[in-house]
Amino acid sequence: RYLVTYSPSNENIDPKKMVIIWDIRTGLEKRSFSIDGTTVWPIFRWSKDDKYFARIGTDTLSVYETPSFGLLDKKSFKLLGIRDFSWSPTDNILAYWVAEDKDVPARVVLIEIPSRNEIRANNLFNVASCTMHWQKSGDYLCVKVDRFSKVKKEKGDQPKYSGMYYNFEIFHMREKNIPKDSEEVKEPIHAFAWEPVGNKFAIIHGESPNICVSFYGVKTGQTPTMLKRLEKRVCNNLFWSPMGQFIVLADLRANGILE
């Protein structure tokens, strides 16, 4: 329904019209925006029904509504240290995470739009990075957390980190109060993919040449259960069938191996 265009900065372009949102059906400009040098594409991320779109800024998250294209409630979310956000593929729910700040933990937060209600939050320590993976059916959200395994604090110095391990924080979106389960993996994670319509996910993990593919099943109130582990696979991408059950293990580098 809407098209977003970007025009690089030059003397012939109004800085306030570097990004324009158009109505595809009418060809009319709905709103224009200026951008700064830190912006990455896509600048805007849209809700599943195109009623809302959002952009991240320095310590802010701005949610806009259509068809007015104005800020929701005429104000942005003030979120010190926000790093990333992601819309649910089926509901007007937005997930974001903010980085750790000294003794203040990192947080993963779920909010409803347009009510702006915080429906779930989770505090995390020793966090290097988070990556959010929504299941296509919207039943689950997995937050992959890269964490430092050792933290050393010396008097008068900043904390020193070393070693990494990984957590999968699984949020059960259809359950009351959105319960969460966790799975810890010590090895590097190379890929993650939800089964689109089921309760399973797959990961590629390990150090070359001992790359493995593991499959997990998810149930409320339980640590994810490993269902199958495939040893010594040559792959770096996972592609589930749209209906689930079947998966392709693909190496998209020089080998071009499919399994």
Automatic annotation (TrEMBL):
<keyword id="KW-0694">RNA-binding</keyword>
<dbReference type="InterPro" id="IPR015943">
    <property type="entry name" value="WD40/YVTN_repeat-like_dom_sf"/>
</dbReference>
<protein>
    <recommendedName>
        <fullName>Translation initiation factor beta propellor-like domain-containing protein</fullName>
    </recommendedName>
</protein>
<dbReference type="InterPro" id="IPR011400">
    <property type="entry name" value="EIF3B"/>
</dbReference>
<keyword id="KW-0677">Repeat</keyword>
<dbReference type="GO" id="GO:0005852">
    <property type="term" value="C:eukaryotic translation initiation factor 3 complex"/>
</dbReference>
<keyword id="KW-0963">Cytoplasm</keyword>
<dbReference type="GO" id="GO:0003743">
    <property type="term" value="F:translation initiation factor activity"/>
</dbReference>
<dbReference type="InterPro" id="IPR013979">
    <property type="entry name" value="TIF_beta_prop-like"/>
</dbReference>
<keyword id="KW-0396">Initiation factor</keyword>
<keyword id="KW-0648">Protein biosynthesis</keyword>
<dbReference type="GO" id="GO:0031369">
    <property type="term" value="F:translation initiation factor binding"/>
</dbReference>
<dbReference type="GO" id="GO:0003723">
    <property type="term" value="F:RNA binding"/>
</dbReference>
<keyword id="KW-0853">WD repeat</keyword>
<dbReference type="Pfam" id="PF08662">
    <property type="entry name" value="eIF2A"/>
</dbReference>
<feature type="domain" description="Translation initiation factor beta propellor-like">
    <location>
        <begin position="123"/>
        <end position="253"/>
    </location>
</feature>
